[in-house]
Design goal:
The chain has seven helices and ten strands. The protein is of the alpha+beta class and about 270 residues long. The strands form two sheets. A seven-stranded antiparallel sheet has the order 7-6-5-4-10-9-8, covered by helices on one side. The protein has a three-stranded antiparallel sheet with strand order 2-1-3.
Amino acid sequence: MSFRASVTSLPSDKANKEIEVLVRQKGNDICSECSQPDPSWASLEYGVFICVHCSGIFRIMPNPHLRAIRLEDWDEDKVQILKDNGNIKVNAVYEKEVPDIWVKPSPDSSLLFREQWIFAKYQRKEFTEARNALPSYLTGQKSAMLFKLKKQGDKWQPRWFVLDKGILSMFISKEDRAPRHEIPVVQINVAINGNFGRLNAMQLITRVDGKTRNMFVYAESGREIMEWFCGIRAAKKAVIEAKHPGLPRDVVIITSVHLCEIITNV
């Protein structure tokens, strides 16, 4: 779905004033992707107002057609694209079916989180009503090679990870029959963590024998680590729903998504 239109009119003071009015309207007054107040850019391809941080991600997508709201002169054809669309209308299409375990970025979100949200939303259209099926990583099953940080030192070692039936298993290699570690997903909290020199890194926080343990892994692509991040959340949500069918939906989501422990005996 594209909101581009042919633009042939000349810049004018009227158009510059109209764009200022548009960006102050409810919904347009915050970034369409992270809700940062006072957006400074607009995408004519999608008809939305965005902040400077998110604009950098739009810039690497095909045909973003970005315009600085206050640093460039506007013409009425370009303004009309944003009049016809805008953040509320566009998000009603592209965010119509956002899975529970996806959390929309905030102004404080990492570059990786913003990037993967925007790519999933616009390029892969994972959150639209028209998507073909639930993405496979949200089914609670996934396997791939990730790189795990050793407990001592700064060496990253390749390890084969399998997510299945509510268990996250780690194998030394794909050929191994027995896993080195098995962790029930209900005992795992996950966080995107790029503090170890790896942008595409994830932190797994677990409780073992009453002690908090941390495992750090990274993938070679941002999409891969984000799919693991969301996949573990989805698997955790499925286990909680199966064991506590009467639990309120908001409690299930909070327990599955956020770094907190509302349920202790699951």
